[in-house]
Amino acid sequence: MTSLLQQAVFRQSAEKLTQLPADSICEVAFAGRSNAGKSSALNALTGRRRLAHVSKTPGRTRLINFFEVQESSYLVDLPGYGYAQVPGDMKRHWARLLTGYLNQRRQINGLVVVMDARHPMTPLDQQLLNWFAATGKPVHVLLTKADKLSRSKAAAQLQKVRAALRKEFHGCTAQLFSSSNKLGVEDARRIICQWITGPG
């Protein structure tokens, strides 16, 4: 499983839905608030420190970025959302891009939603889940930066998020995750690789 994701290489970016790769047969998308640690999570999962750009300034991912892990199968890094310093017209463009991609892209096999374990299930996170829910495709939530919480607090947050998902978003799963100490990395890899390769 690790070796599959370690093969990830950058292929292209898209700022419009018409620019998405035509050869794609399978995509696993990553979405999350701009400061939730999405790029760090992608790098940890692929074992590549600089695959996705990690910036000290949130909101730098302004395009849909495609990383190929095997022929015509991609990890897809979606623009981060919710960063206050981004101009309004850019926010509206991102919203159109995100909703269009999540609702229309039939090649998506699953969505990974990255949330800061200290501040999960924000209104914007719930809006994203609502956008994607209509597809009926699986969602897995990574509660990142779990190393910044005590073990008991992290466990309580996980229980709280799982209860909220069961109530509002059926079929969603969640786990604790840390890019710093690699907590949950193998569990997340297992799910993502299954989405890419199928149950077999």
Radius of gyration: 16 Å
**How many extended strands?**
7
Shape: globular
Poorly predicted runs are 55-60
In round numbers, the mean pLDDT is: 89
Strand content: 15-25%
So how many helices? 6
Q: Which strand order does the major sheet show? A: 1-3-4-2-5-6-7
SSE-based structural type: alpha/beta
Query: In which range does the helix fraction lie?
Result: 25-40%
Biggest β-sheet description: 7 strands, mixed
Distance between the termini: 13 Å
Order of helices and strands: HEEHEEHEHEHEH
Provide the descriptors you would attach to this structure in a database record.
single chain, 200 residues, alpha/beta, seven-stranded mixed sheet
What's the short version?
36% of the residues lie in helices and 22% in strands. It is built from six helices and seven strands.
